[in-house]
């Protein structure tokens, strides 16, 4: 009888100290101030924020503050979703955008639009969550049937699976003359965020708390089913709890904002490379780093071609693609050694 052992998570590299969180909060505060002072309405600039007049406050309350909140919540939630997914699958190249989760959510939005066109955003969000969960479950079932689970192999399988789902979505949209909607759902942008149109994103805060409460157990199940079972944990139940947390976060962001490529892949990888793999310790920093990354992309997108703007998904895709290639090369170099 042979036994298979899985490598334990990488040792903590100093852990998360209070100074890390305070630095992250300070950087976000500066970025948030810049974000509030940039917009098409030139009457509200960076120097007009303290104190704002009544008309300036109206612009801030209806447009810029909702946009800032959406940016922060979307960035934090997708990064945390990627962290949890990488831990429960024990693979650094798995994320909502490389496992078919995002594509399944887009397919759900298309189905909701086809059959419930006049319903509220919440109903479309619920349908997208269901399809995202189902799509991610299929991906996990595929992983269990793969003999060679090297990081890049799993990433390629996930990308191909997502491509199949995207092709199905495009085909159905073409048949229903709805292809024009796909750009909205697949290209993350905050230009349309206004008061009354971003509030469903607060759902990710509740789900994020649930993910934090289960963080230690997610770390354990990432070591393998036999290891987790020997410690008295219900591996399957925890796996599906993690799956639901990830799917809800990804689906909500896609419904409200659109897809942001590579975010859930690169941010958790960079943070864990610096601080280790303990989910509970690095989750707060991952959330801050994800929020800061998306905020930086949003501010840059509004400043590069001002008064026009570049979608966040475009800038995040360029940066994320470069970092993704670097991670692949780094992984290949490590395997060669």
TrEMBL record:
Subcellular location: Cell membrane
Residue spans crossing the bilayer: 21-45, 65-85, 122-140, 152-174, 200-218, 238-262, 282-301, 308-329
SUPFAM superfamilies for the chain: ABC transporter involved in vitamin B12 uptake, BtuC (SSF81345)
Membrane topology: Multi-pass membrane protein
InterPro entries associated with the record: ABC_BtuC-like, ABC_transptr_permease_BtuC
Keywords noted in UniProt: Cell membrane, Membrane, Transmembrane, Transmembrane helix, Transport
CDD domains referenced in this protein's UniProt entry, alphabetically: TM_ABC_iron-siderophores_like (cd06550)
PANTHER family: FERRIC ENTEROBACTIN TRANSPORT SYSTEM PERMEASE PROTEIN, PETROBACTIN IMPORT SYSTEM PERMEASE PROTEIN YCLN
Family note: Belongs to the binding-protein-dependent transport system permease family. FecCD subfamily.
Name by which UniProt lists this protein: Iron chelate uptake ABC transporter family permease subunit
Origin species: Ornithinimicrobium faecis
């Amino acid at each position: 009888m042979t036994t298979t052992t899985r490598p334990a998570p990488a040792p903590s590299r100093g852990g998360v100290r209070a100074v890390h969180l305070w630095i992250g909060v300070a950087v976000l505060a500066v970025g948030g101030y810049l974000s509030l002072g940039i917009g098409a309405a030139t009457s509200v600039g960076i120097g007009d924020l303290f104190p704002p007049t009544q008309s300036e406050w109206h612009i801030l309350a209806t447009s810029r503050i909702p946009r800032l909140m959406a940016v922060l919540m979307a960035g934090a939630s997708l990064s945390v979703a990627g962290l949890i997914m990488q831990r429960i699958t024990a693979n650094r190249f798995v994320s909502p955008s490389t496992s078919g989760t995002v594509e399944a959510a887009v397919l759900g939005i298309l189905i909701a639009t086809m059959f419930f066109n006049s319903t509220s955003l919440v109903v479309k969000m619920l349908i997208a969550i269901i399809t995202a969960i189902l799509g991610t479950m299929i991906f996990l079932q595929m992983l269990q049937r793969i003999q060679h689970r090297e990081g890049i192999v799993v990433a390629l399988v996930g990308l191909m699976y997502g491509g199949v789902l995207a092709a199905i979505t495009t085909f159905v949209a073409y048949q229903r003359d709805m292809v024009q909607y796909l750009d909205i759902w697949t290209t993350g942008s905050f230009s349309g965020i206004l008061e009354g149109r971003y509030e469903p994103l607060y759902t990710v805060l509740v789900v994020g708390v649930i993910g934090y409460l289960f963080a230690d157990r997610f770390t354990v199940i990432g070591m393998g089913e036999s290891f987790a079972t020997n410690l008295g944990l219900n591996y399957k139940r925890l796996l599906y709890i993690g799956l639901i947390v990830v799917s809800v976060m990804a689906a909500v962001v896609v419904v409200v904002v659109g897809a942001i490529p590579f975010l859930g892949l690169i941010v958790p990888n960079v943070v864990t490379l610096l601080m280790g793999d303990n989910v509970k310790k690095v989750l707060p920093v991952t959330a801050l780093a994800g929020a800061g990354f998306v905020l930086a992309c949003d501010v840059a997108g509004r400043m590069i071609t001002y008064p026009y703007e570049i979608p966040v998904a475009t800038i995040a895709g360029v940066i994320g693609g470069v970092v993704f290639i670097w991670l692949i090369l780094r992984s290949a170099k490590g395997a060669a050694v």
